[in-house]
Amino acid sequence: MQNDKERIQIIWFRKDLRLSDNDLLQAAMQKKLPCVAVFYWPSHWLETNTLGLSKMGGHRKRFLAESLACLRTQLETYNIPLLVTDAPEDLSSTLAAKYVVENLWYHEDTTFEEAQEAQQVLSFWTNETKIWPLSRKGLFLKADCDRLIKKQEFSFSAFRKKVEKYLAVRATDHCPLTVQEPLNLEGLNGVLREEEFLETTSTIPDDTAFPFRGGELSALDRLHGYFFENHHVKSYKQTRNGLLGTEYSTKFSPWLAFGNISAATIVETLKKYEREYGANESTYWVYFELLWREYFKVLAEKNGTTFFQKYGFRTSKQSFPKASKEIFQLWIEGKTEDEFVNANMNELRSTGWMSNRGRQNVASYWIHDLQGDWRWGAAYFEMQLIDYDVHSNYGNWQYIAGIGIDGKPKHFDVQQQASYYDKNGEFRARWS
Ligand SMILES: Cc1cc2nc3c(=O)[nH]c(=O)nc-3n(C[C@H](O)[C@H](O)[C@H](O)COP(=O)(O)OP(=O)(O)OC[C@H]3O[C@@H](n4cnc5c(N)ncnc54)[C@H](O)[C@@H]3O)c2cc1C
Fold first, then answer.
1. How many angstroms separate the alpha carbon of residue 270 from the centre of ligand 1?
2. Ligand 1 pocket mutation pick from 238, 298, 387, 389 by most atoms within 8 angstroms of CB
3. Between 20 and 30 A from 333 (CA), which of 63, 146, 273, 342?
4. What are the tens digits of pLDDT across the range 47-69?
5. pLDDT tens sequence across 205-231
6. Candidates 3.90.1510.10, 3.40.430.10, 1.25.40.80, 2.60.40.10; CATH matching 139-170+216-303
7. CATH architecture assigned to 7-137
8. 347, 353 contact by CB (below 8 A)
9. In sequence order, which residues have a C-beta less than 8 Å from that of residue 229 and are 6 or more positions away?
10. Residue among 94, 90, 89, 104 nearest 14 (CA)
């Protein structure tokens, strides 16, 4: 009986929701078997914990739903269906009853919860299916990076100096996809609870600094616009600490977080821009900031749960005062004694976006002025930010708390920051 069944393979999409520069697709295409794309959303993402927070708030869920809708349309061109479900067990058994599922391709994620999630999902596949874990595709080839960075703990400047001296950003993968014969997916409807996840009541908020949609096509539009149409990249270093509007920074982070675009594609385009229009300090600085992102990823991969622990990379336990849940709630609701902090927190709650300057200030205020637990702040960002990225979020929170590799607490004078970065109070007035 087994042999009568059609042979297929699964591409499990996670934080790689794009077609270009995606080695999962490239690898699967080489096997010349029809593909089914799958996206799992564990239902616990939407559950609330004791702090009243969930893993994924409405803004990020909307952005993810848009990213999946875009991916689905893109895959349909090749007759590759995208199945979205919260029931991996039911999906694997239903597919296995209909097909011989030969291969399953996915990207490994080494952080604790993400690794656990993979273990659970993969446990539902039998030995009949060969599992192909591919390692994360960062800016550099993993083998080169592993060879170069031997230490477990290393500072950003040590990392930057080494990679700038010895490594080139990897080339992007360009794999022509082939159109496959449509698959018969009758009988699967019962196991897909995708409407529940994809339907979202949230719309793009008014007056947000991030009025863009999720998905590879919007990401590529923004990339092209920021570089070649508006040339804002030429003045990025001067504008990057801005607070209002769409153009003060690249706004690439939400698309990077869901893998709608790869950092290597951004750098490839940046190099093209520099060849055509010349390089300057600003064009370099976009690369410099992307190195921060890469740094946190490599550091997290080498240090496991240290990234999430109360005292992080510090061994001597400093005093760890704790603000109450009531104070936490005031911070969340933008009801503290500081107007600048409140404005930033209001922006985040209303739109899912906050500038880098804002993030540094509200994090510092929560940890060092209100004496709060950095992990609560990080968990709130995780729920709200549309660009939530486990490595950049926890890495930056540890950095501000002073329990990262660079152990100096970063305590900002928020009033001074407001008078410098929001001189005429326009930002505070907008989000008061
Ligand atoms: C407390 C705190 C929490 C943060 N949480 C996140 C998060 O969950 N997800 C996230 O992507 N970034 C996070 N950041 C980093 C940074 O604030 C955002 O990456 C940036 O504001 C995104 O806007 P942009 O794309 O316009 O950035 P740009 O200024 O245009 O920078 C270009 C890219 O460089 C990278 N980058 C810039 N600054 C940093 C940084 N400090 N650390 C790591 N990467 C950086 C991002 O990928 C960004 O898209 C956090 C920063 C702080 C202080």
1. 18
2. 387
3. 63
4. 999 999 999 999 999 999 999 99
5. 888 999 999 999 999 999 999 999 999
6. 1.25.40.80
7. 3-Layer(aba) Sandwich (3.40)
8. yes
9. none
10. 104
